[in-house]
């Protein structure tokens, strides 16, 4: 396992990341044309009413003051009130976040279950008919946008065959597994295509490596060669890729959650941007930053466990 | 004979009621797929359509909008405007109750109207700006006005004057009115309308349950609504919402894209409802002498604006964008708006006349115009492409600029545009709202166009304090004529509200103002 000091160093690196994220998101949302008052009173308010709304929201304060208030509140765990939903941002995010995390883990799990065994199958019969077939099918998955895969799955499996519900969210764990299978699958098809290509390539490379030949030559069982020598080495780059794709997944949920009517933070982010809901956008971006940092940290830990050479650097 | 007549009449009425009652079935639930969720359904704070189109489901107003747009009695049996126009008296019905069984009194009305006209609270307070004082004596409610205002009667039938229970609201947690409003709503509010709120998962679903104390009666003589509950699910994506309906998981889906209207209309399990609406699609034209960047604005010349209107084939646009569900604009306001005046479609397609007008304006050689559209909107993309083709023979070189909704709002307000797309639906059953918005310079620079017509402005100001309905009608006629002539807009089309409903559901209505009315909906078993 990685040492404590390594973990601490990695954790400390997160702090400047957060500061930068806070500054960037604070400025970026304010650089967008239009503001919450305009988005809120779109159309119907007079200019005087707009000024009143801006005043009520504290948007007439100078930017540095707004920023200091934002930093101070964030440090005390207060992300402000959502302009669009008229409720505390923390409350809203905590309410919606479990759904997105559930969906993300579900789709990663599906992607691993799909890509793992098939990558082995493909790598063990390089350029054979099975390998070619697997690669071609997943190439299609890779070249289709997630929302399109989603709509195809919805139309065929939900609306026509009625095996699954058309979008929405269930109550309870099992019901959610049932409700979220199509969104999870449509994301998983894409993710698994990437993982499959990468894992297959590293497997082929590792299988051909001298140390594997040597392990075989010294008479180790096939199982031990595969798990201890082949898989462990081949997984290093795949884990990196998986970590990165979970990061991507967070942004991917924007689309998936809208198509499948899943009430998670991805869809919320989209709505918040269109409403120029500064506090909510800021809160969600920070949440995404925390999630991605945690995933990357976990990736690093797993990697350093897989590959001891990484611990020294 | 004298005594027989009422009996005969009664029997005849009873028979009529029995026949129609046969058709209607009570009980059960319906599921309705919405494009967006409500946040706080409160008469005062509702500021987005998904909120304000639900308010009257929970809170009844003193007066109501009849199906034909007329004002009919609501919680009040009727109203009486004083001869000098400075006060309005209303009498509440006897025995009115809120959903929790408590009495609905004059005090609740005063509380609700005072809240509705408090400018510190919601965005709609200005609608009651003329009200000086609201008082109640028993069942008698009196509104004293600072100046005559004929729109107040319509406002008393508008969602923002829905009647709320004073006692229950004040008991809700929170220091400010806004916090109380949210706590009151989240806890499942006490209501005066046809429904109460049973449960709700933010962003996902909501359930309305029947209010057993609602005052109106159905055709079977018992109290409305017929349904025990209405379940709402939030499905933002159009295609998914329709699939959900086709799979039979919901009974109705709103905001059907016009491109799908024909297909769903042909589905034997569905009814494709196209409810008449006050919704218009139009394009404000910047009429200022110079553009924001300081260059000379060719659209400042009224002849150029008229020419572009003549060069636009509205019927083709209606076919392309609304799949023939829309109709051309005949005035600045939709034909469903009160005091609408527009005997025929504005600026019928006439490229020769357009060419002639441009020559007169000295722009026969052509010029460049920027058209600002909503990014990702298929309708806007179609509009742009069609207009580009229609206008290019005149030498008008149309350039596109794609922005998102708040950016478009910002550009409109700062005058940084040539022409852009916009939509509107009335919130109030009165023409003053749309007329002030589109044409009155002092309110919003005539929808950001900068069009400042003295005659129009004076007429608008006069009409706002007019006590004589006939004179007000005449003023509105003149304003609509002046506006059409001045052409600060590209007049496009009116569109209906498209809702696809399962054949087993009857009686659901979306009103011309957009409100979802489930009070007379019922399910055939």
User: Which structural class do the helices and strands of chain A define?
Assistant: mainly alpha
* Unreliable stretches covering 5 or more consecutive residues of chain A: none
How far apart are the termini of chain A? 15 Å
Cα radius of gyration of chain A in angstroms: 24 Å
Mean pLDDT across residues of chain A: 84
Biggest sheet record of chain A = none
What can you tell me about this protein's structure?
The complex is a heterodimer of chains A (313) and B (525). Chain A is mostly helical and 313 residues long. Chain A has 2 domains: 4-75, no CATH class; 92-310, MetI-like (MetI-like fold), CATH 1.10.3720. In chain A, 79% of the residues lie in helices and 0% in strands. Chain A has helices at residues 4-31, 36-40, 47-57, 63-75, 89-124, 129-143, 146-160, 173-179, 181-207, 210-217, 222-259, 265-274, 278-306, 309-312. The model of chain A has no long low-confidence stretch (mean pLDDT 84). Chain B contains 18 helices and 24 strands. Chain B is an alpha+beta fold. The longest helix of chain B is centred in the N-terminal third of the chain and has 20 residues, at 4-23. In chain B, the strands form 7 sheets. Chain B has a 7-stranded mixed beta sheet. The two termini of chain B are 44 Å apart. In chain B, α10 packs antiparallel against α12 (351-360), α11 packs antiparallel against α13 and α15 packs antiparallel against α17 (454-464). The A-B interface holds A 32-35, 38-47, 49-50, 53, 84-87, 92, 95-96, 151, 154-155, 158-159, 162, 165-169, 258-261, 263, 267-268, 274-276 and B 39-40, 45, 47-48, 123, 126, 178, 182, 201-205, 233-237, 239-241, 243-244, 246-247, 249, 403-411, 413, 422, 424, 427, 437, 443-444.
């Amino acid at each position: 396992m990685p040492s404590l000091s390594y973990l601490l160093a990695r954790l400390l690196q997160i702090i400047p990341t957060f500061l930068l994220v806070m500054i960037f998101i604070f400025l970026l949302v304010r650089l967008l044309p239009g503001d919450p008052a305009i988005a809120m009173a779109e159309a119907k308010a007079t200019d005087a009413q707009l000024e009143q709304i801006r005043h009520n929201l504290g948007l007439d304060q100078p930017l540095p003051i707004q920023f200091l208030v934002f930093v101070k509140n964030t440090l005390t765990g207060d992300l402000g009130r959502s302009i669009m939903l008229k409720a505390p941002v923390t409350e809203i995010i905590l309410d919606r976040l479990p759904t997105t995390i559930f969906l993300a883990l579900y789709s990663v799990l599906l992607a691993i279950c799909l890509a793992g065994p098939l990558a082995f199958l493909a790598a063990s019969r390089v350029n054979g008919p099975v390998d070619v077939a697997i690669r071609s099918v997943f190439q299609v998955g890779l070249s289709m946008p997630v929302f399109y895969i989603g709509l195809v799955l919805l139309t065929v499996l939900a609306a026509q065959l009625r095996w699954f519900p058309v979008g929405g969210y269930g109550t309870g764990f099992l019901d959610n597994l049932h409700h979220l299978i199509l969104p999870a699958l449509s994301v998983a098809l894409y993710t698994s295509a990437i993982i499959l290509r990468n894992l297959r390539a590293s497997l082929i490379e590792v299988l051909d490596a001298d140390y594997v030949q040597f392990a075989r030559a010294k008479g180790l069982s096939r199982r031990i060669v595969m798990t201890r020598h082949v898989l462990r080495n081949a997984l290093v780059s795949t884990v990196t890729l998986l970590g990165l794709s979970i990061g991507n997944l967070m942004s991917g949920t924007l689309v998936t959650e809208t198509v499948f009517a899943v009430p998670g933070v991805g869809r919320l982010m989209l709505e918040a941007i269109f409403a120029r809901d500064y506090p909510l956008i800021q809160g969600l971006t920070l949440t995404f930053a925390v999630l991605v940092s945690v995933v990357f940290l976990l990736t690093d830990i797993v990697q350093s466990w897989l590959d001891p050479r990484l611990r020294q650097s | 004979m004298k005594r027989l007549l009422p009996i005969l009449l009664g029997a005849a009425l009873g028979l009529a009621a029995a026949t129609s009652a046969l058709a209607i079935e009570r009980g059960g639930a319906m599921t309705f797929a919405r494009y967006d969720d409500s946040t706080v359904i409160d008469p005062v704070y509702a500021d987005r359509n998904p909120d304000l189109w639900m308010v009257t489901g929970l809170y009844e107003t003193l007066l109501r909008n009849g199906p034909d747009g007329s004002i009919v009695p609501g919680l009040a049996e009727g109203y009486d405007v004083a001869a000098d126009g400075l006060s309005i008296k209303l009498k509440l019905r006897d025995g009115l109750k809120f959903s929790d069984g408590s009495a609905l009194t004059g005090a609740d009305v005063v509380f609700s109207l005072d809240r509705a006209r408090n400018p510190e609270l919601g965005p709609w307070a200005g609608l009651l700006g003329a009200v000086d004082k609201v008082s109640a004596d028993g069942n008698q409610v009196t509104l004293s006005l600072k100046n005559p205002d004929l729109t107040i009667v319509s406002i008393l039938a508008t969602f923002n004057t829905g009647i709320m229970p004073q006692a229950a609201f004040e008991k809700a947690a929170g220091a400010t009115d806004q916090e109380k409003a949210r706590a009151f709503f989240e806890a499942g509010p006490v209501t005066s309308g046809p429904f109460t709120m049973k449960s709700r998962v933010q962003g996902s679903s909501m359930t309305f349950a029947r209010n057993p104390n609602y005052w109106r009666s159905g055709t079977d003589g018992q109290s409305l609504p017929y349904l025990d509950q209405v379940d709402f699910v939030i499905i933002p994506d159009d295609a998914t919402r329709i699939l959900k309906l086709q799979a039979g998981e919901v009974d109705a889906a709103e905001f059907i894209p016009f491109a799908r209207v024909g297909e769903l209309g042909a589905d034997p399990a569905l009814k494709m409802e196209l409810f008449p609406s006050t919704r218009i699609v139009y394009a404000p034209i910047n009429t200022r002498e110079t553009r924001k960047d300081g260059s000379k604005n060719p659209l400042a010349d009224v002849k150029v604006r008229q020419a572009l209107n003549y060069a636009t084939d509205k019927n083709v646009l209606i076919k392309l964008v609304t799949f023939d569900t829309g109709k051309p604009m005949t005035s600045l306001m939709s034909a469903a708006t009160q005091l609408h005046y527009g005997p025929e479609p504005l600026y019928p397609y006439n490229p020769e006349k357009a060419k002639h007008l441009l020559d007169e304006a000295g722009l026969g050689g052509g010029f460049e115009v920027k058209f600002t559209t909503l990014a990702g909107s298929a309708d806007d993309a179609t509009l742009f492409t069609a207009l580009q083709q229609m206008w290019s023979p005149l030498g008008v070189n149309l350039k596109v600029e794609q922005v998102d909704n708040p950016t478009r709002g910002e550009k409109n307000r700062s005058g940084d545009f040539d022409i852009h797309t916009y939509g509107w639906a009335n919130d109030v059953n009165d023409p003053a709202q749309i007329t002030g918005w589109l044409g009155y310079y002092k309110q919003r620079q005539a929808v950001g166009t900068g069009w400042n017509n003295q005659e129009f402005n004076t007429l608008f100001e006069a009409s706002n304090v007019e006590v004589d309905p006939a004179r007000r009608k005449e003023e509105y006629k003149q304003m609509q004529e002046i506006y059409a002539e001045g052409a600060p807009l590209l007049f496009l089309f009116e569109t209906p509200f498209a809702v696809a409903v399962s054949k087993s559901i009857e009686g659901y209505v979306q009103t011309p103002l957009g409100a979802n009315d489930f009070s007379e909906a019922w399910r055939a078993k």
